[in-house]
Amino acid sequence: MSLGRLVENWGTAQSYLIGCSPCIVGTLWAVTDQDTDRLALNMLHHWLPPTEEMKKRMSLVEPKDKRPLRNGKKRGSS
Hints:
Number of domains: 1
GO cellular component, one term: nucleus
Order of helices and strands: HHH
Number of helices: 3
Region (Disordered): 56-78
Protein name: CHAT domain-containing protein
GO molecular function: cysteine-type endopeptidase activity
């Protein structure tokens, strides 16, 4: 069965583009993996080096929850 023109091609990416976002970076599916998080952060730090203003703002959104993860590691550790 072909849906052809019946499928509406609208989603989150289009909303960001309409809002004048200069670019969109993301994965094609939901990924909740620490290695993927590190890869994304490393890529963003090389692409957009952090400024002092950004470092201040990031300190406000760092996780406040200090409980260990299920694997026994502390949050934010490798």
